[in-house]
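Thread: Newbie trying to understand structure tokens

Hi all, I'm a second-year student working on a class project, and my supervisor (Dr. K.) asked me to get a predicted structure for one chain before our next meeting. I've only ever worked with sequences, so writing a 3D structure as a token string is new to me. If someone could post the tokens and maybe explain what I'm looking at, I'd be very grateful. Here's the chain:
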Amino acid sequence: AFRNMQWLRPADDPAVAAWKKGTTGFPLVDAGMRELKTTGYLQQNLRHTVGQFLVETLGVDWRVGEEWFHASLVDSDLAINAMMWQHQGLTGVSQWLIGIDCHPVRHARNADPRGDYVRYWVPELAELPMKYLHCPWEAPVEVLKNAGVKLGETYPERLVHDVDAQRAAFLALAQQCRRAAPKECFSPDGCDLLSLPSEPSPLRMERGIWALTERRIRDGPQSGGKGAAKGKGKTNRDARGDAKGGIKGGKGTKQSEMDSVKVETPASSPYTRRWQRATGA
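---
Reply by user tm_fold:
Sure, no problem. This is what the structure looks like when written as tokens:
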């Protein structure tokens, strides 16, 4: 269904380079990407945050993120990393990540409520009051000056101004792509069918793998569906636990519980300590 998806930015777009370096202008995203680049590890909750920002906010092909994580993570697992990035890019067997709100400001206030994480990894913002730490563009000029921050110089301007509008545009493009897909791409209730290799499959599925497609993806007319079915595509999944291998989450925890998961500073991260012992850092 997403074979002809029109991504908004190519892999060599400057915004992708900024994402990789941790210079997007969104402090929580930047902190996460800097930790990943420095330590080879990123806490579970933040893997969702930076992944959602790349795909849904910047409109970049999920395979760009998959490749970067595979090269960067010390706990990278080829199958898990690919699977979870497929989920983030709507092309996997489950698309529940589209229902998780990891807005880089709203979510930051829950994930890093005291600002310790951002201040550690984005030290150029360390002197900002907590009120503006996760959204420095809202700080008055005098506050920025007192904190030694000059947007566009000491810390980058944000790449986009309206994250919600960008995510909505991404969702609209995805739905448009699905509407143009042939009916063979969908199950009777409108879920995506993942095509199987041409050679015989041990799964013994004639039409393909039935994906757990989110209701919000299935909303609206499409070639192969009859509307959203009941009981499928729930969004109350979470990012509980330190999963290995890529963007990965657990089952059964509600959004409010996921929001309460606090990110770890490098000193407290077991993966960071393991990486340090292994590398002598």
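A couple of things are worth pointing out once you decode it. The longest helix spans residues 163-179. Residues 220-245, 247-266, 268-281 have pLDDT under 50 and may be disordered. Feel free to ask follow-ups in this thread.
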